[in-house]
């Protein structure tokens, strides 16, 4: 790492004292050159500073108010580019890779402006340091909300351009020529007039002594040679050959394994355990009891799992022992009917507009609890000692993992060492540290490193779930069928109130109302309200697509209902309302044209559409379905996306495809139900996800745009469900307002 900017000691990183040259930098630059330890060039810059992006995206992740900026005159870098004497480029950023492809796309930004081959750039996890590596736009060191490329777009390119200009200046100084007569290409600086050339590795020490160039010019998009070009994932080979390290892959000397049995009832605690039979199983070495779980320690996973199965446990089930879905849904419905909502948006006079409307449309929508079901089940390896603690895990929030270590062990932050690994799926689950906290509690009672792992059953039954939501929505239509009044009341849990309390302001959870409170449609009179209703002891958390997954389903289904009431084609109806949103109209036109919208479908088949603006991107989807004997098959999905400037079209296509498959699972099959305070689902047998042979044909059309990049990891999931349920309506005439589709289309004899 770096002398002057970073001080690497005992595996930790701390901010070095600022210098006068740092404090004199303009707020628009946020750059500093320095010498790297062992020789070379290190450039510190602010990842996220000055990035273009919507404040709602920041709020939906950690609760920033959208106004976080560095203080005047204070240089606070949170990302670093190091170029060593061999010319190797290492990028250190506070972002993690969990399948979204940022460990390819972000290096593309640097490589483009630095003029180096993409293969020469490597990317490292930043160590947890809340001050040094905090993203000012997210308010923490974390990865989420489809924000990584949005906030990397300008700072990463500017950092690459600054380093390139500094290296050219160093070469020009050595050759005593005008820097304007030199140029960079493929990791070298060239002076064509004299034929001289020098590699970056030969110039880094000299460049480190120069002041940081100011106001560098970024490339015009027409000159891009890397950005915007289809590029294979840099991390694919190691994932194919098995050398990539995920949390579950950790192997340490003298490591033991802990199988967990959690209390099956939310909020319950351990009363007593009979471990007689468990201790007799070969390989079982210890039984550990904590407040709401029992861990069986074994020399290998099989011994630990067999031991866990042999336990006889009595639980204090507590107040939630009688909790059921009937009670949860009833409480939500009562809150929607009786409680006054906090106003998220008010335009015009809705009640007056309803009075003048010709037609009124009303509906109630419900969406279930959802598990994350990441392919890599929950796991965490810890080694707790008297004066230190090490944690091996894949987490989206490394600083919160360290905080958990401090809270459980009583050690100081500098005594906690986090080894962050690749994540086998995040989807918001690994924004939480409940399992890390549990592993630390177990580790305190074990003298050696211990890997705590959850079975798939434990994973599904003890997740932190996407909240159950209950929506009441109404529209008043004029004589032409246009909505002149729009009222939407959202009732459900507040994730923000727990995860980022400062974001929960005036009774509004910005995640819960996202999309619903910022529609692309022309709605002159609208009232959007939120009622917080917590589901007793059921833990809730972010889920892929966060607020837009629930908001888009409700709004886009209801827009279809309005189109039916207006006796207007659903696509034409949307077009009539999108005159003030040309980007939304653009993706709608591309998707419907590609899907051949218009001609009638064969009997039993239907075609549905959805439009969405979220995460800084615009999406339209058209889904084709077949309904037979109450079973739904999604045959084809056509997606059009305007996500601004494209960094890697290959990643965009992959993320949209993955998001669609994820969304189909949730729309058709997935739900968590609760009876007697327990989750009734256990594994993929009853928490069903889409199989490969059930996947539809997926077409992804990227709409060219000169706007700043938007997010791409989550919109594909959020836009899917209403396109499918609208297609089901087209095929059957049955409007589905509850997810998942499940058995709703079956008659009583076949259900």
From TrEMBL:
Superkingdom of the organism of origin: Bacteria
InterPro entries, alphabetized: Ald_Oxase/Xan_DH_a/b, AldOxase/xan_DH_MoCoBD1, AldOxase/xan_DH_MoCoBD2, AldOxase/xan_DH_Mopterin-bd_sf, N-heterocyclic_Hydroxylase, OxRdtase_Mopterin-bd_su_IorB, TAT_signal
Domain Aldehyde oxidase/xanthine dehydrogenase a/b hammerhead positions: 241-319
Record-level Gene Ontology MF annotations: oxidoreductase activity
Chain intervals for the UniProt region annotation (Disordered): 1-20
Protein name: Isoquinoline 1-oxidoreductase beta subunit
Organism of origin: Paraburkholderia eburnea
């Amino acid at each position: 790492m770096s002398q002057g900017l970073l001080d690497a000691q005992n595996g930790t990183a701390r901010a070095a004292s600022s210098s006068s040259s740092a404090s004199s930098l303009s707020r628009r630059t946020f750059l500093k050159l320095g010498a790297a330890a062992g020789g070379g060039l290190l450039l510190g810059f602010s990842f996220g500073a000055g990035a273009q992006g919507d404040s709602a995206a920041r709020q939906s992740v950690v609760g920033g108010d959208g106004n976080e900026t560095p203080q005047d005159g204070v240089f606070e870098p949170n990302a670093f580019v190091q170029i060593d004497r061999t010319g190797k480029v290492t990028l250190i950023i506070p972002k993690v890779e969990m399948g979204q492809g940022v460990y390819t796309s972000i290096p593309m930004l640097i490589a483009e402006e630095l003029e180096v081959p993409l293969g020469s750039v490597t990317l490292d996890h930043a160590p947890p340091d809340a001050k040094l590596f905090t993203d000012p736009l997210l308010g923490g060191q974390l990865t989420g909300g489809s924000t990584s490329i949005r906030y990397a777009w300008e700072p990463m390119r500017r950092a690459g351009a600054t380093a390139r200009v500094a290296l050219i200046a160093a070469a020009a100084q050595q050759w005593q020529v005008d820097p304007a007569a030199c140029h960079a290409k493929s990791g070298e600086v060239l002076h064509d007039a004299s034929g001289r050339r020098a590699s970056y590795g030969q110039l880094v020490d000299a460049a480190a002594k120069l002041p940081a160039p100011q106001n560098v010019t970024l490339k015009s998009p027409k000159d891009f040679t890397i950005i915007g070009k289809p590029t294979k994932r840099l991390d694919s080979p190691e994932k194919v050959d098995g050398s990539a390290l995920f949390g579950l892959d950790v192997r340490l000397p003298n490591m033991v394994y802990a199988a967990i049995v959690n209390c099956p009832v939310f909020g319950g605690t351990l009363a007593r355990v009979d471990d007689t039979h468990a201790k007799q199983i070969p390989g079982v070495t210890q039984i550990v009891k904590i407040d709401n779980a029992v861990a069986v320690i074994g020399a290998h996973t099989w011994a630990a799992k067999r031991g866990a199965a042999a336990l006889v446990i009595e639980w204090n089930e507590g107040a939630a022992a009688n909790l059921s879905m009937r009670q949860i849904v009833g409480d939500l419905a009562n809150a929607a009917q009786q409680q006054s909502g906090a106003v998220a948006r008010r335009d015009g006079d809705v009640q007056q507009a309803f009075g003048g409307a010709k037609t009124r449309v009303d509906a109630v929508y419900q969406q279930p609890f959802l598990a994350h079901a990441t392919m890599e089940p929950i796991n965490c390896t810890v080694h707790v000692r008297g004066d230190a603690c090490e944690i091996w895990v894949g987490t989206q929030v490394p600083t919160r993992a360290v905080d958990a270590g401090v809270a459980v062990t009583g050690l100081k932050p500098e005594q906690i060492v986090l080894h962050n690994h690749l994540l086998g799926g995040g989807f918001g689950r690994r924004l939480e540290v409940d399992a890390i906290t549990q592993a630390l509690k177990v580790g305190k009672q074990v003298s050696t490193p211990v890997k705590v792992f959850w079975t798939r059953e434990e994973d599904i039954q003890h997740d932190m779930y996407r909240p159950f939501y209950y929506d009441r929505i109404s529209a008043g239509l004029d004589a032409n069928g246009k909505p002149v009044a729009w009222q939407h009341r959202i009732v459900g849990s507040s994730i923000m109130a727990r995860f980022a309390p400062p974001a929960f302001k005036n009774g509004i959870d910005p995640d819960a109302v996202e999309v619903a409170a910022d529609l692309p449609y022309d709605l002159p009179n609208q009232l959007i309200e939120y009622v917080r209703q917590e589901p007793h002891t059921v833990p809730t958390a972010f889920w892929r697509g966060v607020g837009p997954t629930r908001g888009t389903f409700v709004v886009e289904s209801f827009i279809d209902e309005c189109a039916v009431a207006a006796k207007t084609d659903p696509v034409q109806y949307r077009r009539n309302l999108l005159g003030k949103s040309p980007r939304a109209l653009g993706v709608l036109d591309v998707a419907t044209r590609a899907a051949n919208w218009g001609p009638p479908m064969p009997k039993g088949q239907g075609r549905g559409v959805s439009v969405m603006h979220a995460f800084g991107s615009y999406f339209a989807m058209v889904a084709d379905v077949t309904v037979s004997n109450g079973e739904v098959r999604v045959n084809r999905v056509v997606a059009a996306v305007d996500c601004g400037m494209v960094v890697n079209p290959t990643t965009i296509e992959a993320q949209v495809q993955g998001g669609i498959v994820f969304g189909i699972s949730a729309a058709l099959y997935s739900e968590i139900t609760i009876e007697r305070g327990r989750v009734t689902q256990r594994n993929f047998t009853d928490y069903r996800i889409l199989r490969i042979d059930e996947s539809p044909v997926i077409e992804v059309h990227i709409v060219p745009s000169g706007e700043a990049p938007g997010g791409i990891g989550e919109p594909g999931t959020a836009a899917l469900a209403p396109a499918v349920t609208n297609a089901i309506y087209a095929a059957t005439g049955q409007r589905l307002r509850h997810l998942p589709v499940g058995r709703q289309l079956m008659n009583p004899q076949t259900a």
